[in-house]
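chain below, 77 aa
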Amino acid sequence: MTTPKGFNHISQDVYFNPSTNEIVIVGELDDEDETHNCDHMGCSSVNHVVFRGKLATWRYSPPTKKREPYFYKGVSV
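prediction:
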């Protein structure tokens, strides 16, 4: 997946836009998930958006040469 404009590629399936506090997680869906709406979630032709939301609080640590995990509200991503 190409990183959308304004978003930072956090990990393999996680994208974060610090200016809008929006986080997007892409991945595979269950074949029987009839509640998923690609138009509403903003899916691409390559990946499904499984979660899209805004973070109330966050802390973003830019990547270093040594690959370290990122932390949001104490949760490692």
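Helices lie at 38-41. Residues 38-41 form the longest helix (4 residues).
thats it, cya
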